[in-house]
Write a structure and sequence with these properties.
Elements lengths: L13 H15 L1 H13 L18 E5 L2 E4 L4 E4 L2 H4 L8 H10 L11 H13 L5 E5 L2 H16 L3 E5 L42 H4 E4 L4 H11 L3 E6 L2 E2 L5 E2 L2 H14 L2 E5 L12 H4 L5 E5 L9 E5 L1 H4 L20 H13 L2 H25 L3 E4 L4 E6 L7 H5 L3 H13 L2 E2 L5 E3 L6 H17 L1 H5 L1
Parallel strand pairs: 3-15, 5-6, 5-7, 7-10, 10-11
Antiparallel strand pairs: 1-2, 2-3, 4-12, 8-9, 11-12, 13-14, 14-16
Helix pairs in contact: 1-15, 4-12, 5-12, 8-9, 13-16, 15-16
The protein binds pyridoxal-5'-phosphate.
Pyridoxal-5'-phosphate binds next to α6.
Length: 463
């Protein structure tokens, strides 16, 4: 799969290549540009989702079908992002469409329980060994917020420990050290990171109750728990960190977290908002470490807004309104019929066989990406697990958030735009995932796009 380098020597500088790619992107997407300008007049940045923004402007997507999406200019892309991992079946899966359209004419949301909600709850309880009971909400952010509230109420403590670089949504308490600059002295040294507010507007004293520790560093978290363990309500971690760069935690690290939380009377929360897709019972099934609480979102709503959290009955029963001083958890659209019906259809179609199949496609993708980088002589590494893949350019090894943060973000942005020009839709940070709408030929096609994008930018990538 050697990268084809034309006989004409490409002598452009990195800045010239970047300018050429941006010019090509603008030329290919005039309608997206016009729609972006119109959107900017009524929405800051032209959208309601900061993560989806990238320069010079994001594409406006008009429709999706299976593993492909089409932009407003009529160009088609292989969707290797699947709405940030949430569309496990790609777009328009017949069973989900059938479930939703069957319900739509008869009402969408009622201030009362519905049968589909119980069915989806049963599916999660059946699949995830550590989950006795669940509740639903409308986003992963809310799921995390409720799980932390449950842990604080259960333990009577306020302090939360999270991983540096861990993304758990936009709730204030988890907007700490999400993407801190490792070079900023305020972030602290590698093995003793300090909590840094993730965005302006989060109360400054949030960092008093939210402590951070590096993933896969047992010594540091042991020290932290020795010092503060008896104040800690919960440690929260994504077993495979998504936004930090698709980084699987070491088994020994998760076991250490389990041991430390038990020792100090704290709860262990696995945020499986992204990683639930990686094994039939969530990626905790692979690690064989049993958390007290698990958060869900993304795939469990079949493409509709959703969140869920569940775990040990003793912790979850705090939400039972028949109990004295129950925990309050509500939301106008929680457990709405359409999301629940779509979620049931999506989960029913996500059989263990399909999980294994798209994990295999993920392996094909990661192996192909590694081969392409090596053949082209481009410094970089590929991380991931199962159906996840992420490319980090300009670094050789990524095991922690700080390793990933030291990658060349400018090259990632250049590769991202080049991939779009080659018909491959990935995240601007080069995060990708497979879906059940794909097969091996689609992965080969995507790798072909990556090969062309590399060839077209080679002096920048190797310079
Ligand atoms: C691990 C993790 N937790 C929580 C969230 C927040 O979920 P949502 O965007 O549905 O609020 C995300 C979103 O990407 C996530 O990846």
């Amino acid at each position: 799969m050697a990268v084809q380098i034309s006989s004409m020597v490409d002598s452009r500088t990195r800045a010239e290549i970047e300018a050429d790619v941006i010019a090509d992107y603008r030329a290919a997407s005039p309608r997206s540009a016009a729609l972006h300008e119109a959107a900017r007049r009524v929405m800051p940045g032209g959208d309601t989702r900061t993560v989806a923004f990238h320069a010079p402007y994001p594409l406006s997507i008009a429709e999706g079908c299976g593993c492909r999406i089409q932009d407003a200019d009529g160009r088609t892309y292989i969707d290797l992002l699947n709405n940030y991992t949430s569309l496990i079946h790609g777009h328009g899966h017949p069973a989900i469409v059938a479930a939703v359209t069957a319900h739509l004419p008869h009402g969408t949301a009622f201030p009362a329980p519905n049968e589909a909600q119980t069915r989806l709850a049963e599916i999660l309880v059946d699949r995830v060994a550590s989950v006795d009971m669940v509740r639903f909400c409308n986003s992963g952010t809310e799921a995390v917020m409720n799980a932390l509230r449950a842990a604080r109420a259960f333990t009577g403590r306020d302090v939360i420990v999270k991983m540096e670089g861990g993304y758990h949504g936009t709730y204030d308490d988890v907007e700490v050290s999400v993407h801190p600059d490792p070079l900023d002295p305020l972030s602290g040294p590698d093995h003793a990171p300090r909590g840094v507010l993730g965005t302006r507007g989060v109360p400054a004293n949030t960092v008093e109750n939210v402590l951070v520790t590096p993933v896969n560093d047992v010594e540091t978290v042991e020290r932290l728990m020795r010092e503060r363990g008896d104040d800690v309500a919960a440690i929260i971690i994504e077993p495979v960190m998504g936004a930090a760069g698709m980084l699987p935690a070491d088994h020994a690290f998760l076991e250490a977290l389990r041991g430390l939380t038990l020792e100090h009377g704290a709860l262990l929360i696995f945020d499986e908002v992204m990683s639930f897709r990686l094994e039939p019972g969530g990626v905790q099934e692979h690690y064989r470490v049993r958390p007290d609480l698990t958060t869900f979102a993304k795939i469990i709503g079949g493409g509709f807004p959703v969140g869920g959290f569940g775990g040990r009955a003793a912790v979850m029963e705090q939400f039972d309104p028949l109990r004295p001083a129950p925990l309050w958890q509500s939301g106008t659209f929680n457990g709405n019929l359409i999301t629940m019906a779509a979620g049931v259809a999506a989960m029913d179609a996500y059989t263990p066989g399909e999980v294994a199949r798209i994990n295999g496609l993920g392996e094909q993708l990661r192996a192909g990406l590694r081969e392409l980088l090596a053949d082209a002589g481009v410094r970089g590494t590929v991380t991931g697990y199962g159906s996840f893949a992420s490319v980090h350019l300009g670094v050789d090894k990524v095991r922690s958030y700080r390793d990933a943060a030291r990658s060349d973000k400018g090259l990632a942005r250049l590769m991202h735009l080049s991939l779009l020009l080659e018909g491959v839709f990935a995240a601007p940070r080069l995060m990708m995932c497979t879906s059940t709408a794909m097969d091996e030929a689609v992965i080969d096609e995507a790798l072909g796009g990556f090969r062309r994008a590399l060839a077209g930018t080679l002096p920048a990538m190797t310079g």
